[in-house]
Amino acid sequence: MLSFLNAEEIAGNSEKPLPGIQTVQSVELPASTSTWNHKEGITMIGEPRPLDQSKTEIVRYWIYLPHNYETLAKSNGSPLLLFLHGLGECGNTPDEIVKVKVHGPPKLLDNPEFNKTFRSIVVSPQCKRGFAWSPLQLMLLLDHIEQNYKIDKRRIYMTGISMGGFGTWMCLSESPKRFAAAIPICGGAKTEWAERLTEIPIWNFHGDKDGAIPFSRSQEMVDAIRKTGGKKIIFTIYEGGGHDVWTQTYDNQLIYDWLFSHSL
Fold it and tell me: Structural domain of residue 23, as residue ranges?
């Protein structure tokens, strides 16, 4: 069952977070125009759109600093993992940010056993209802994080599920030289982006019985990258797997070992 944040937790987002604790933060950014009516299908879920520079909006996110953040800050800085949630975790009000913790790394970081060994900053923003992820806005969010924390810019990573899988592919296409490695899960992308992605280590996951996002969206993208000469793409197919293959993926320590082994 979800529990809602109290007023002190929401009001405290202007303070620097403490290592080992996920904290809600917010930043004002140019407004996204990436509207998406999911009832009309997934056609526009991965369509990059410009920002509305005449308007701003508040983007809320969870941020986690690893226990050894201060030590890392004195050397090259901390690695950073950007996590993008799926459709069901969208929200517009401050107390809805708790929904971002339903799946993936932000959920696992509330587990003390997972938390104490995780070796990266994790940033988990929330997308507004009625919208899909905006890669341009997410790049500005990363700029903001880099300005306020000691980040090892050679070790920035991405992962996302479903709508966030599409968002991950979009961000890789938008800024292919910014990410050291990425893990999109049950998403998809435009095959014409393949040439931009041949040099990025990508480990893609999808269930072949996915009823929400067709398995073919991943297969076509992987094939396109390989066809253009990409040799750094790995594709794990869950035979008989439905839409939620992310739970077992994020429960596997191997993916984190693989992810953090890469640097620019």
Answer: 12-260
